[in-house]
Amino acid sequence: MYHSGGRMLAAQRQELILEQVRRDGGVRVTELVEAFAVSDMTIRRDLDALEHRGELRKVHGGAVAPEGARTEEPGFEAKSTRQSAEKHAIARAVTELVEPHSAVGLSAGTTTALVAEYLRETPGLTVITNSIHVAEVFYRSERTDQTVALTGGFRTPSDALVGPLALASVRGINLDTLVLGVHGMHERAGFTTPNLTESETNRALVESARTLVVAADHTKWETVGISTIAPLDRCDVLVTDDRLTPGAREALQDRVGRLVIADVTRETP
């Protein structure tokens, strides 16, 4: 039950409605009227405002997530400008979890590409990745004691390599650590992606790893892509940033093996 509508600003109420849409995929007007103790007309005005902003789509009796929200996949360059400070803080924290002279996998993503930048200084690594950007980071390194293997496959908007060739490259490999970037994380849906074929490749990477480290900033919480990569309890270490809400921290601490909170305020990208 939410706070009484009379004591809540429209913007606060709309944000809570939007959170429920993101979490459950949709809302009903009758339920919102009861939850907020406001009129049917007030809720419909809220939904009109949220639809106008493109945050949801009105349907008979309520509203749902906008069309394509679970399958929309922004390109690498578009995502690379988002949450820059958070991603740098997370990448530094992830680097401390990777042992020198170990076999490490890095999935595609802007956060994992930053992890690669920091791992260039870690000696003796054997790196397996389906990310063009991650491979390029290591190829630019002057170290001669690192081995980097890029899978084959078809290229996605996020510059991941997927499909039968990528799967064939991953299967049979044994990794000490996999650093996995994700589109979203949710209590019920787990770690998700908007790309079905990328999910298949990522699941194969997860199966090959002794330790799964997920790198995900706070905006990924309660975001749900169409396909689940792994449940939350498969994650050995989740590295996120200190802008994650207390409620999300509590939920994640109960489900992942270990929760690491990176301090964004100390980070200067």
TrEMBL record:
Pfam family, one: DeoRC
Name this protein carries in UniProt: DeoR/GlpR family transcriptional regulator of sugar metabolism
Keyword Ubl conjugation: no
Top-rank lineage group of the source organism: Bacteria
UniProt source species: Nocardiopsis metallicus
InterPro entries listed in its UniProt record: Carb_Metab_HTH_regulators (IPR050313), DeoR-like_C (IPR014036), DeoR_HTH (IPR001034), NagB/RpiA_transferase-like (IPR037171), Tscrpt_reg_HTH_DeoR_CS (IPR018356), WH-like_DNA-bd_sf (IPR036388), WH_DNA-bd_sf (IPR036390)
Keywords: DNA-binding, Transcription, Transcription regulation
MF terms (GO), sorted A to Z: DNA binding; DNA-binding transcription factor activity
Occurrences of domain HTH deoR-type (ranges): 10-65
